[in-house]
Amino acid sequence: MLPRPHPAVLFQRVPEGAILLHSEQEVYFGLNPVGVEVWQLLPPTCRDLDEVCEELGRRYPEVSAEEIRSDVSELLDELAAHGLVIRPDET
CA–CA separation, 48 vs 41, rounded Å? Predict the structure, then answer.
């Protein structure tokens, strides 16, 4: 299962992608355009990592499935480390 956005995180689009702000922890985090797509595919849009990777694979057929999975997993780990998402085992 995928982590879900933390309810205290605000999402704001900017020309370069988006800014996430954890209003309780005062954490700012920048997303590039692909990071925005991943954020928008988090639950309830997609249920698991496979769904996210399949959707991104359709959008970016020139990128290997392994690279997509690695990049998405890395981003999700970074978001979790900053408290911007809640992992299913933390609920």
Answer: 10
> For the packed helices 49-59 and 65-81, what is the interaxial angle rounded to 10 degrees?
130
Residues in the chain: 91
Contact 83, 22 (CB under 8 A): yes
What is the SS3 assignment for 25?
A: coil
pTM of the model: 0.92
Task: Tell me the per-residue pLDDT of 28-38, one tens digit each, with 9 for 90 and over.
Answer: 999 999 999 99
How far is the C-alpha of 39 from the C-alpha of 76, rounded, in Å? 9
Q: How far apart are alpha carbons 66 and 39 in whole angstroms?
A: 19
Largest Cα–Cα separation, the chain: 39
